[in-house]
Design a protein that fits this description.
Rossmann fold; 245 residues; four-stranded antiparallel beta sheet; 10 strands; 25% strand; single chain; six-stranded mixed beta sheet
């Protein structure tokens, strides 16, 4: 469904992505892990067209994004790291933002938004509240409802459990997995939370120094021989990944 081939991106003399190639089959979930500055966010931004890669090819469903980006974005959803809700809009308008922009009648858009809020465990009365009236966990659920509002074929999750306590993180992880499986969506998740990786992903790609250091099934992580992956999983300061002091 998503294919990256020999992707490269530099900012001046700093090489962020170096020959990154990844495949995400339709209906599967990939988690991209790695330390800060290893190119995780830049990879997503290249797919979205926010950053133009210096080299390489990106295809979605077999079509090059050079000519099909608008069509891709129309079938795409995203859960942002900080929620990224509009403070001045009630919850239902946040969830229905794309629908309203595309001309869906307000009554229909609100009904669909309430249905999606129900899918993520929020009551109908939440629809008329404002983001500031909600807890962090509820805001994250609203963000998830917005991400799935138009039943997208592709969903990106950027650090989906950032700022949440361990219990709420587990709830969000389980909810994401249920919804993604139910929808049959193809997903990419960026995260440092290994509990999210184990709950959400089918496969894992570890980026280091702008390259894919390790790529394989979630079940194969713990027994992998790669020293970079083993150090990342253990959180050890000792190993090939140099800790910035």
């Amino acid at each position: 469904m998503i294919s990256l081939t020999n992707l490269a991106k530099s900012f001046g003399p700093k090489h962020i992505l170096r020959d990154v190639s990844l495949e995400v089959p339709k209906g599967t979930s990939l988690a991209i892990i790695g330390g800060s500055g290893t190119g995780k966010s830049v990879t997503l931004k290249c797919i979205l067209g926010l950053i133009k890669p210096d080299a390489g090819k990106i295809t979605v469903d077999g079509k090059s994004l050079d000519n099909e980006r608008e069509a891709f974005l129309a079938s795409f959803g995203m859960l942002f790291q900080g929620g990224a809700l509009f403070d001045s809009l009630p919850v239902w308008q946040n969830v229905a933002f794309r629908m309203l922009h595309d001309g869906t009648p307000r009554t229909e858009a609100k009904d669909r938004a309430i249905a999606k809020l129900g899918r993520v465990g929020l009551k109908p009365e939440t629809a008329d509240q404002f983001p500031a009236e909600l807890s962090g966990g509820m805001q994250k659920r609203v963000g998830l409802a917005r991400a799935i509002a138009t039943d997208p074929a592709v969903i990106f999750f950027d650090e989906p459990t950032t700022g949440l306590d361990p219990i709420m993180s587990g709830v969000i992880n389980e909810l994401i997995r249920e919804i993604v499986t139910e929808m049959g969506a193809t997903t990419i998740t960026i995260t440092h939370d290994m509990s999210s990786v184990r709950a959400i992903a089918d496969t894992v790609a570890m980026l280091h120094d702008g390259r894919v250091q390790w790529h394989g099934p979630v079940a194969g992580m713990d027994n992998a021989d790669d020293p970079y992956l083993r150090q990342f999983l253990s959180g050890s300061a000792e190993g090939p990944i140099e800790a910035v002091r």
